[in-house]
Each structure stands twice: as C-alpha cells, then as structure tokens.
Amino acid sequence: MNNTQASATVFGFQFQINAAIYLMLKYFSDFNQIKVEGTQEDIEIFLCNRKIYVQAKSKEYPTKDNKGHSEKLNEALRTLSNVKDKDVCDLMYISNLEDNPLNSGTTEFNDVSFVRYDELKAPSKKKVDKQILKGNYNIDTNKLIIGKIPFYGDDWEQRHKTISKKMSEFISEISPSLTSFANRIITMWEDDFLHNATVKSPKITITKESVVWGLVVCKLQLDDVKKFDGNLGIEETDFLEAIDEYEKIIDIKSSTFLDYNKIISLYSKYKLKMGKSITIYKFIMDKENEIFNLIFPNKRKDDIVLQTCAKIIAKEIILRSNSIEEIKRGVENYGNK
What is the largest CA-CA distance in the chain? Predict the structure, then answer.
C-alpha cells in the first residue's frame, strides 16, 4: 500500500469514528451502546427499542472534485442490503462528500443532513434507485437514510469543527462547567473507539455507562480534593506516602463506577441509620474496616499506607458525589428539555 492509499485508509477510519461519535450524541437520550467496525456494519447503534446500522464512506479531500460518489453509494447499499436483523429500524449511509453525497445536483443536503429516502428529491431518488437496480440489492428503502457530516481539512479544528460544535452543545446541557473540555472529550472518545474497533470480539462495545464515566473523570479533574486532612485520623507522613506510592490507584478508584457505588451505598445506609447530619469523618472512622474491605478486598488490613489510601478514596468519593450526580442527572435529562 503506497503512502496515498495509507493516508486515505487512516482518514476513512477517522471519519468512521467521528461519525460514530456524532451519531452517539444525536441519539444520546435513547442510546444504550455503540460499536465501530461491528459484526454487520461499520457502525452499529443500539438504542432502547431499536437498532441502526450504518455504512460510513468518505474522501480525504471531498471539495477537490465530485468523483466517486456513485461508487461509494453502491458500496454502502451493497453492504446494507445484506442486513437480515429484523430489529433494525434504520439503514444509514453517511459520508463527508460535498456538497451533495449523491452528486444529484439537488439542494436537500445542507451542512449536516440526515435525509430519509422518501424525503429525497426526484434526481436523488433516481441515483439511489439506479444503484439498487444495478446491484439487484434487496433493501427496504423505507428504512434508508442518506446522511452527510462535513469532515475534511488538514487542521484538526477545521476537520472536527462539526463534531466539536455538536459536542459543545451536548456538554452545555450535561454539565456547563465541562464546556472547555469538549475537544479533549472528542480525543478521549476517538481513542476509545479506536481501541474498540481493533478488538475482534463482537461482544466488546462502548456503553452509555462508560461514556458517562468518561465525562465524570473529566469533571473530577476540576475538583481538587486530594489534600492532607487530619480529621481522617491519619498521620501526615502516612498521607504523603500513600499519595507518593498509590496516587494513580487513588485516582482510578475514586472515579470508578463500581467503587463509587459501593462507598455511596454504604454511606447512604449509614446516614439513614445515624441521621443525615452525621459527618463524613465519623462515617469513615466508624466504617473503617468495611471501607477497606470494599476498596481493597484482597489486601492485608495491617498495611497502614493502604488503610490511609482507603480513607482518602472514601473521602474523595463522598466529596465528589455532587459532581458525579450532576453528570448523571444531566445525562438522564438530556433531550428532555
């Protein structure tokens, strides 16, 4: 493969990933999970009660000429016609081709467009029908959507401007304080999708839960709660040693869904029994052994540094719970405004 072909291949995969991110945000209120390079299509989206299969085709420099539109449409329709899943509600062909992905000379495609087959203008329908007839494809046009997402340019911001705008709109509803993280979140999700797409097992998917906790991790970066606190009943030397040896573990466990749920559940039960005015310090001191067992179930309890870590983690989780709940509420309410 020469350098030009390699560049086009890499670009095509980047477009596929960013199309997946855009579609995930578009359908997020109903979103369950998504897979890039799925078992049947480039992108498989699983919503609450339906599935969408997507073929993504692109050109690295789509504004230079209008060549290749018919070939890419044909490739997408051929693959979409092989879908046998009865639960699929939509079959989508999405591209970055300018200015009309069908090159039909019509104007129904604007900046970002998702046009159903029955909404296409006559010349566009003719283009689709010609490819279906030519390939003898068995495809339900009632389910067919032709989509367009602008994605081109050598500059990162230029190439991602449509995705960045969508992400900023999404973040502003979920947690306005994260708005400055929009591009960082795109990069983080690109890495997640890239890893996901290289795993052969079709059981590997990106779930709504993992997306939410990615947002949580970004949110927690804004909260500086890792400071020495003598009220935890620990020595400053033990605190400094714990941070020095286990800072990464503390950060991971303080923002991991499973550990968060364990500690918050224990804390909620404790408050219910003792009264809501109880301090987090009394909780941590009274439940020291249980907290340690939840966070480090297979570690020695006589390890002073790990005992200190467990207390730091419990405190961080409780102090950060408001930030975490803000994200969770934002996700739950997204699209309902």
Answer: 77
- What is the number of residues in the chain? 337
SS3 278: coil
- 316 CB-side CA count, 13 A: 29
Give residue-wise pLDDT tens across range 155-209: 999 999 999 999 999 988 888 878 887 888 888 888 777 765 555 554 457 888 8
* Preceding amide of 140 cis, omega within 30: no
d(C-alpha 169, C-alpha 179), whole Å: 9
Residue in 126, 136, 98 with CA at minimum distance from that of residue 117: 126
If we measure between CA atoms, which residue out of 109, 111, 101, 110 comes closest to residue 74?
A: 101
In angstroms, the CA 265 to CA 317 distance is 11
198-225 pLDDT tens trace: 555 544 578 888 788 778 777 766 555 5
DSSP string over 226-239: ----GGGS--HHHH
* Element of type H or E holding 144: strand 144-148
Q: Tell which residue, 119, 144, 114, 148, has the closest CA to residue 131.
A: 144
Beta bridge partners of 51: 46, 88
Residue 208 CB neighbours (<10 A)? 16
